[in-house]
Each structure stands twice: as structure tokens, then as C-alpha cells.
């Protein structure tokens, strides 16, 4: 038996050379899910930094949870890095929302192979 899932597919414009469609799941087995935005700048290593931005994977609302995340950095010095991991647990806000902290090390890349550190907080 399958799990009932609701959501929608977002068709991106064709300006991105890595053209894709994003699937946004809004409920899983009848339970609403949500996502967070994240963005930042990596540490300065090997003479440069990278920018990154993305959206976490969906997770259930109103229960203790974390989110998986994945994105690619901007191209700088002729290369880019992969960023992926799992956020920390939800941190409640006084207004009833929450956010998550994240941190990690990028994948190895570049003519002179190296990594960058990154960390931050998701949107609410």
C-alpha cells in the first residue's frame, strides 16, 4: 500500500544550464510538511570564498525534527563545491516559529584540491 502524498511541481525557466523541475511535497501520509531556505558564504580558503543558497528537504510540522539539505556553491576560481548535511533540531522562537542551525565542510574541488567550512541558520 502506498503513502498518500500531496504537493506540486515547479517548472523552472530555462536560464539555468542545470535545468530541473522541483517537487514540493506539502503533506506526507496526511501530515503537513515544511521547508526552510538557507544561504551563506563559505570560509576563505585557497584564496577565495563561495556563495551558496538552497532549500531544505521537507519535514513534518509540529514535531521534533531536522531537515536534510543539499546545494552547490557558486563557481569561483573555476570550480564549485557540494554542500550537504542534516540541520540541527528545531530551535523555537518566541513568536511560535522555529529555525535550524547547520554547519559542515564542502566537498573537495579545485585545481589545488581544497574544502571550505560553512555554517548558518535556516529561515523560519
Automatic annotation (TrEMBL):
Database matches in Pfam families: YmaF (PF12788)
Domain of life (superkingdom): Bacteria
Protein name: YmaF family protein
InterPro entries membership: YmaF (IPR024307)
Amino acid at each position: 500500500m502506498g503513502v498518500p502524498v500531496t504537493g506540486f511541481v515547479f517548472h523552472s525557466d530555462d536560464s539555468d544550464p542545470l535545468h530541473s523541475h522541483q517537487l514540493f511535497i506539502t503533506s506526507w501520509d496526511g501530515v503537513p510538511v515544511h521547508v526552510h531556505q538557507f544561504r551563506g558564504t563559505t570560509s576563505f580558503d585557497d584564496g577565495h570564498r563561495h556563495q551558496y543558497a538552497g532549500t531544505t528537504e521537507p519535514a513534518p510540522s509540529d514535531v521534533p525534527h531536522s531537515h536534510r539539505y543539499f546545494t552547490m556553491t557558486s563557481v569561483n576560481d573555476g570550480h564549485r563545491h557540494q554542500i550537504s548535511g542534516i540541520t540541527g533540531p528545531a530551535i523555537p522562537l518566541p513568536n511560535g516559529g522555529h529555525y535550524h542551525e547547520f554547519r559542515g565542510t564542502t566537498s573537495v574541488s579545485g585545481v589545488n584540491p581544497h574544502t571550505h567550512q560553512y555554517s548558518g541558520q535556516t529561515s523560519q
